[in-house]
Amino acid sequence: TLMNVIGCLDLPSAGTYILDGYDVSDLTEDQLAWVRNRKIGFVFQSFNLIPRVSAIHNVEMPLIYAGDVQQRQERALASLEAVGLLARAHHVPSELSGGQQQRVAIARALVTDPALLLADEPTGNLDSESSTEIMKLLRDLNEQGRTIVLITHEPDIAAFAQRVVRLRDGIVVSDERRPDQTQVTGVAGFSPRLQ
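^ thats the sequence. predicted structure below, dont judge the formating
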């Protein structure tokens, strides 16, 4: 439920949710779709890449209705470069490792320059080496000012975070801030209450 509310897939049952200066608590479906497309980048455990198209075309997907083809390609290439995969832009997912596929998924999430990156178990399908690479990439993105909310059940992945909010049965049971850690999760000003 919390992830759905943060991702503007569901509305909160009470309270207010401000995302990048917008009160998204009471928007219509069309308005929520606009917010999701422009303000939130989604990264999933299963990558959700289109198997028969290249990395660049997978990254372009959120831009399909925005701008001309050349502008879309330039933005997609810049996004792939940001995740270290520019050299693999014309490879299809089956030609990429799991870690590289997740980097393509992160590039796709970043291509619209969202205010928030919502990552749901982004390392769940990866080996430990690829998981560490993805977490370092997310840490670097956060250090560049990107807000990242990462959902995980893995303590070693949560250990990358400066802030860890633990939920049990829809209730916040702890909110631990570790300022010495390299920040991966950013939920500044957000105090979730589920009802």
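The domain at 37-176 is CATH 3.40.50.300 (Rossmann fold).
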